[in-house]
Specification:
The chain is mostly helical. It is built from four helices and no strands. About 90% of the residues lie in helices and about 0% in strands. InterPro entries: YabQ.
């Protein structure tokens, strides 16, 4: 490697160490959300370090075609130490501020969606169901009254006609009605027997 490439490698790896310190603090701050699950804790830890290793190696590859030298690790450690000594407290305070801002924005958006979208839609659905139930109740009531208006006169009319019929004809009608009633009862009994046998 030429001196210029070595210099760029040192600068890049120092910046990479600085970046690693920042991203590590960010990860540690956010890891409280999955610390309760041991599986998620180890899984996220592995994913984090694999990802950061690939990022740093990609930077190294862009600078010196991926050649690993001892001073590369020293430069990375130097950048990490510089972050811890110079910028860790400032960055952590900034990170907490950004988390509060993002949380407030999320709550505001959630509340806005709740007020402008979800609540009106739910109110509209409830109103529609109430109107539909009221209309159904009115229709059932009307049908009930219509049935009474039609059924009662017809009932008394046919009853009057039945009484005007000869006695022998009335007896025959009773016999026919009894016959059909027996057929109906027999059919129901057979169906119940068949169903009980299948069980």
């Amino acid at each position: 490697m030429t001196l210029s490439v070595q210099f760029l490698t040192m600068i890049s790896m120092t910046a990479g160490g600085f970046y690693l310190g920042m991203i590590l603090d960010t990860y540690r701050r956010l890891s409280i959300h999955w610390k309760s699950s041991p599986f998620m804790k180890y899984f996220m830890e592995i994913i984090f370090w694999l990802t950061q290793t690939m990022v740093l190696y990609y930077v190294l590859f862009r600078v010196n075609s991926g050649e690993l030298r001892f001073y590369v690790f020293l430069a990375c450690l130097l950048g990490f130490s510089m972050y811890q000594g110079l910028a860790a407290n400032v960055y952590k305070a900034f990170l907490e501020h950004m988390i509060r801002v993002v949380t407030a924005m999320y709550r505001f958006c959630k509340r806005t969606v709740q007020v402008l979208v979800i609540t009106p839609v739910l109110s509209l659905v409830r109103f529609t169901i109430t109107i539909a139930a009221f209309i159904l109740h009115v229709l059932i009531t009307l049908l009930h009254w219509l049935f009474k208006i039609i059924y009662i006169p017809c009932f008394w009319f046919f009853r009057l006609v039945f009484r005007m019929l000869p006695s022998s004809f009335q007896v025959n009608l009773h016999k026919v009605a009894g016959f059909y009633s027996k057929i109906e009862n027999t059919c129901r009994k057979r169906i119940k027997e068949l169903l009980s046998k299948r069980r």
